[in-house]
Design brief:
By secondary structure, this protein is of the alpha/beta class. Helices cover 58% and strands 11% of the residues.
Length: 324
Amino acid sequence: MKFEIIIDRPEKGKNDEYIRSSIFHVIPKIADDFNLNLKGLTQIIITQSLEKQLHKISDMNGINKITYTNEVDVKTIGKFLCIRNKNDHEIFIFLNYYEVEKHLFSQEESTREFLAHVIHHELAHIHDINQKITFKKKENFEKLTTDKLRYIYPLVENCWSEYYANFLSQPTATEKNYNFYISLFMNELKKSQDNFSKDIIRFRIHGDIDKLLDDFNRRGSLLIRLASYNIGYIDGLNTKIDFYCKELYEQLKQSCFCDIFLDLSNALSTIRKSYPSCDDELKLFIPLIEVVEKYFNLSGLFFSKTMEDKIYISVPISKDTVPY
């Protein structure tokens, strides 16, 4: 296993070599302990500026701007990126330098274990990528650029990816890891619909559907993505949500997201039972595609067709999305 660890900061720090050595040794141990396929892992970049590094990689490889979660109360700790070449692929892992330093040098073992699980989660993404590459059907992906799937499928892949990474990495998760995602999910349950309704109200004024979709992809989709993280833990623990967190269960029952959460849980679990033995990814993911479309609808976005059979997005008026 050959990979490079890069520490990206303006000046060399006194802890850099210890950080590099610690990460370098934990990667093969996790891979061996959990039989993970890390083919293609090229670099682990521990950075103080995730945005700068993502822009650098995207510019070098001629790909579109790479997004990441950077909301007020939800920040990215780790991120993976797969660059597909003609006959191969390269995979990069990005880790937030400040978070790595804070967790690695903590006096609390549970805090250091939190970081080990974050790394395990990112390595599980690589294992997932290597499984997907073996059964993707090229002809199916033409569909992703022609109909509503081009809007839906990126979120489908994101939900599956985070679910499966947490399912695979659950054995190293600690109470801190569980509570981290439970807290984020519960917080998002309280505010997500109201926040996206405000985005739709702004859309009624500016009329830019692409901007509204950007807002949805960045903020509006956060709720279903956080649900996927937690369902990964729930299935990894082989338990039910009321045993996983009673408080979350009670809050979810009172929310308009409850039915979608249950459908999402069923879809993800169903897919996992056939994954990756099915040779047709698009067919395998149909249950999840249907759930994600329902989530678009719950958020106020609906797919329609023109007389020429072209897809467009309609945003029907509701009492919560009318500017006053």
